[in-house]
Amino acid sequence: MRVMANVAMVMNLDKCIGCHTCSVTCKQVWTNRPGTEYVYFNNVETKPGVGYPKRYEDQEQWHGGWALDKKGRLQLKAGGRLRKLLTIFYNPDLPTIDDYGDPWTYDYQTLIEAPLGTRNPSAHSISALTGKDMKVTWGSNFEDDLAGAPEHAAGDPNLAGLQERVRMEFEQVFMFYLPRICEHCLNPSCVASCPSGAMYKRAEDGIVLVDQDRCRGWRMCVSGCPYKKVYFNHRTGKAEKCTFCFPRIEAGQPTVCSETCVGRLRYLGLFLYDADKVLDAAATPDAQGLYEAQLSVFLDPHDPAVQAAAAQAGIPHDWIEAAKRSPVYELAVRHKVALPLHPEYRTLPMVWYIPPLSPVSDVVDAAGYDPDRPDAVFATIDALRIPVEYLANLFTAGDPAPIRRVLRKLAAVRAIQRAGQLGLDLDEDLPASVGASADELDDLFRLLAIAKYEDRYVIPPAHAEEAGRLMGQHEQLFCSLDTEGGPGMGGEGPGGHGIRSYRPTGTPGAGQTFAAEDGRTRFNLLGWDGRSPAPGLFPEGEAS
Amino acid sequence: MTNATTAQIFWWVALPYLTLGVFVVGHVWRWRYDQFGWTSRSTQLQERRLLKWGAPIFHYGTFAAIAGHVIGVLIPERWTHAVGIPEPVYRWFSAGAGTLAAVLVIGGITVLATRRLFVPRVRATTAGIDYVALVLLLIVVLTGIAPTIGVNLLGHGYDYRATVAPWFRGLFSGSPDIQAIAHAPLIYQIHATAAWMVWGVWPFSRLVHAWSYPLWYLWRPYIVFRSRKATHPNEPGTGGRKWRKIGVPY
Ligand code: SF4
Ligand code: SF4
Question: Which domains are present in chain B?
Answer without folding.
Answer: 13-218 (1.20.950.20)
